[in-house]
Amino acid sequence: MRNILRWGAVYALASTSYAQIIQYPAQSNVQYSFNVPAASASSGNGDIYFQIQAPASTQWVGLGQGSEMKGANIFIVYSDSDGQNVTISPRLGLGNFQPQFNSQAQVSLLEGSGISNGMMTANVRCSSCTSWSGGSMSLTDPSSSWIWSIRAGDAIASNSQSADLQQHNNFGTFKIDLTKATGGNSVNPFVQSSTSTNASGTAVAPLATTTAGSSGDGGEHVGPSPTKHMRVVAHGVLMSLAFLIFFPFGALTVRLLSFKGLVWVHAGTQLTAYAIAVSGMGIGVWLAVTEGAWDQSAHTIFGLVIIALLFFQPILGLIHHMIYQRSEQRTLWCIAHIWFGRVLIILGVINGGLGLQLSDNTVKGEIAYGVIAGVFFLFYVAVVVISDMRGRGKKLGETGEKITGKEIADQSPNNGDSTDGLNRGR
């Protein structure tokens, strides 16, 4: 009888000492492990524990509660300033852009955290993971939703919990049966013996890993959507064509070419550019709607304002053309049309750079965009300056084309058919 009681006491002690850990391997050498203490599961509130592991070459690695970034309770791990330990940064997801530091979160780094043997490890106790601004989670949920993300690159090396982050290289979602992670009352389940299972409940070694594409218990591992990526690329290509090629070319046609009716070539080119820009904006609107970035991204707001203002540019051009037909004089409408267009082109190019930052393009891509934009700008300025110098004192058409003596006579206001005769002012 005594032996039975002794072994019963030992079993009871073991059941409270040894934690039940469930693991989810997101991709090669990137793994997330979870434990819900029995007391927390029983009360529905309290601490939970999770471990985040990734290669030391990782710039940052993240874990979030929720099925998407918007409304998620997110935890980002990156190296600290001395490169020996890690920083845990609790954040709130407001949409598909950089999550904001959450000063209300109650999280602690535990023993065993740090960087060693080529791996970055964060053993975390979270005391505010049952409810947060934007969502909640039951500690006995058999199908709890989680997100993960990772960014490869140079170490952040910061002790600040609000350090700036570059966008992830890879991400995904998965589901965890928290009932299989329930057990024990350890204050740090990752530094002592434990019973570990993977996301489907199979016993595994505590540090087991697998390749990307594994699914959780009934959950699906997903990466970046190919459709979304294609639309991001299409948006960038269309806007670049509009603001780096078509709009500048349309403006320069009145400088580089000279023939009667050139004004309509100019107008047609600019309207084509506007159609391309509107198409690109449509894709951008779709991206903003799906990512919840309407009022959070400067690129989105700036882009909508630019496209809206561009609507008035052909109207200014038409007014300028109609007044010129009657007066053959450079008016304020002409100046407004010219400079309004130039300013909007410049703003569009700048907003393209903001878009590259938002999409986290490569440094080489950003440099290439800057170089191309710079070359086009210098070329545009050179053409304007040279054409102005050559055209001083000469009688030119509305769009800058040369006019013969016969054409000047034919297009005199006395003949009632004036469409040209402007001193160069474009």
Brief summary of the model shown:
The protein is of the alpha+beta class and 426 residues long. The chain contains nine helices and 17 strands.
Topology:
Layout (H helix, E strand, L loop, with lengths): L1 H16 L1 E9 L2 E6 L2 H6 L4 E8 L2 E8 L7 E7 L6 E7 L7 E2 L5 E3 L4 E3 L2 E8 L4 E2 L2 E2 L7 E9 L17 E7 L17 E5 L27 H31 L5 H30 L6 H13 L2 H15 L4 H27 L4 H29 L3 E2 L8 H6 L11 E2 L3
Parallel strand pairs: 1-15
Antiparallel strand pairs: 1-2, 2-3, 3-10, 4-5, 4-13, 5-6, 6-7, 8-10, 9-10, 11-12, 13-14, 16-17
Helix pairs in contact: 3-4, 3-7, 3-8, 4-5, 5-7, 6-7, 7-8
What structural class should be given to the helix and strand makeup? alpha+beta
pLDDT averaged residue by residue = 79
Order of helices and strands: HEEHEEEEEEEEEEEEEHHHHHHEHE
Described by the principal axes of the CA atoms, the overall outline is elongated
Strand content: 15-25%
Uncertain spans = 1-17, 193-224, 400-426
Q: How many beta-strand runs?
A: 17
Distance between the termini: 105 Å
* Helix content range: 40-55%
Number of helices: 9
Whole-angstrom Rg? 32 Å
For the largest beta-sheet, the strand count, sense and barrel status come to: 7 strands, mixed
